[in-house]
Description:
Belongs to the glutaminase PdxT/SNO family. Keywords: Glutamine amidotransferase, Hydrolase, Lyase, Pyridoxal phosphate. One of its GO terms (molecular function) is glutaminase activity. Catalyzes the hydrolysis of glutamine to glutamate and ammonia as part of the biosynthesis of pyridoxal 5'-phosphate. The resulting ammonia molecule is channeled to the active site of PdxS. It contains five helices and eleven strands; from the N terminus they run E-H-E-E-H-H-E-H-E-E-E-E-E-E-E-H. With about 190 residues, it is an alpha/beta fold. It has one domain: Class I glutamine amidotransferase (GATase) domain (Rossmann fold). Strand 6 and strand 7 form a beta hairpin. The longest helix has 13 residues, at about 15-25. The two termini are about 20 Å apart. The model has no long low-confidence stretch (mean pLDDT about 95). Glutamine binds next to helix 4.
Amino acid sequence: SLNAGVIAVQGDVSEHADAIRQAATDRGETAEITEIRQSGIVPDCDLLCMPGGESTAISRLIQSEGIAPEIQAHVEAGKPVLATCAGLIVAAEDAGDDRVENLGLLDVTVERNAFGRQKDSFEVPLSVTGLGEPFPSVFIRAPLISGVGDADVLAEWDGRPVAVQNGSVLGTSFHPELTPDSRIHGLAFFGE
Ligand code: GLN
């Protein structure tokens, strides 16, 4: 069984846990979910999810709890991470916000809330490199990926990148955990 960690200091956690379990089942695997609120757990995880929520809060708490360097070590060891929405903001190289200490796991720059306010949330089917049928993508006060360095763009909406990958790290502006479709989790954790 895989040891799957979900960063749980703030944000949506149970939806990611369900999607990880489903993605594992689809590949004939099982996953044990651990919610991470303190240091010392990430080193035992085979894979990690960084959920959506409020990026300034998530950043502050993973720093004060000493979780941030463990996530970086996890990536340096080549292990997979899926970072969604606020998770993507924290994982990016730069978010242009002093309250976010970026982890630099994805070579992209982002702008918080650039897809509009909460009322502008929307769902759209997107074709994603590595997936067959379009993926139902839910955007909620989503970050705009404003610059792409040495990262692969897996999906675009309206001509803008919304899913990116650097090695074992996959980031999405949208929320793949909010639809019953677990293929993005499958792609992030088990590959194509
Ligand atoms: N607007 C949030 C932020 O900037 C992200 C929104 C989300 O994760 N749904 O942190």
